[in-house]
Amino acid sequence: MIDPADLDHCREAIREGSYSFHAASKLLPASVRDPALALYAFCRLADDEVDFGEHKPAAVLDLRDRLDLAYAGTPRNAPADRAFAAIIEEFDMPRALPEALLEGLAWDGIERRYATLSEVRSYSARVAAAVGAMMCVLMRVRDEHALSRACDLGVAMQLTNIARDVGEDARAGRLYLPTEWLDEIGLDEDAFFADPRPTPQIRSMVKRLLAEANRLYHRSEPGIRRLPLASRPGIFAARHCYDAIGRKLARRGYDSISQRVCTTGRHKMGLLGLSVMRAAWVSVMPESAVVYAKPLPEVAFLVDAAAHPDPRPIVRGEGILSVFRQLEARDRAEQEAERLTRATA
Prior knowledge:
Protein name: Phytoene/squalene synthase family protein
Pfam family, one: SQS_PSY
Radius of gyration: 20 Å
CATH superfamily: Farnesyl Diphosphate Synthase
Order of helices and strands: HHHHHHHHHHHHHHHH
Keywords: Transferase
Helix content: over 70%
CATH class: Mainly Alpha
CATH topology: Farnesyl Diphosphate Synthase
Structural class: mainly alpha
Number of domains: 1
Strand content: under 5%
Largest sheet: none
CATH architecture: Orthogonal Bundle
């Protein structure tokens, strides 16, 4: 399905860019691991271009064009794009899922802020839960309860990422903490960017994010039982590798500004062993009623898209089209500024 050379390129991209996923992927069967590596490479490279590129608007607009080409069956001549196009064809990947990811990255491109925890969950739904739903598609799972729990896991993992990166994001002028939390303590966003400190109030916000993540980690677990037997250890591994970051952050007093928390290779190996045991345990235990919990309101559209794929071509909504217009305006402004700089140099 995927050209071996393209797959090797994707594997290297993930090995260098996502240690936790690379570790967890070792426990997935090859039939899921290989397309998952290709999927994560496409998503991760796109995310990195937006996060760390000099021209965020241009990076998002470029991703929009790459997605259009992949779904037209004429991907850009690059390993990750060719591999992603192969996944679309083989697994009938609902376009609404990568479109959701694109929308989340577009929000990054316009440096959108989030007033409430619900809005942070909406962002997390797009940049992480959408990937969880796509992973279910790669396992050929379209059960709405399994999809709901997979989306819980995706949101939990993204909240963990946000909690871990508060300091790093602030120093880069990014903010994913709910702005109403800052308002509650009278902290101005620009003042926080100018001098991010691990104050008791900021640590309390990190703790609140991790508490929500922990709730969703536990809510996600019953869904793993509904996945193919061979895939369960790998998904448990992803759950435990990310959760371990939050636990280590808690042991350090929820300070994610003074240093960036990460887990060691030895710790990850222990978590892989734990994941194998938990996968065996969940297979023989009675199914929890939690599996039937309604999806988070913020992810319901993802569950519906994956469980009931619409064969009609997707029509981008006014919301994302408005974001694209903002990005295009920013991109033109950046290009004009560069032109003037060169002209006056």
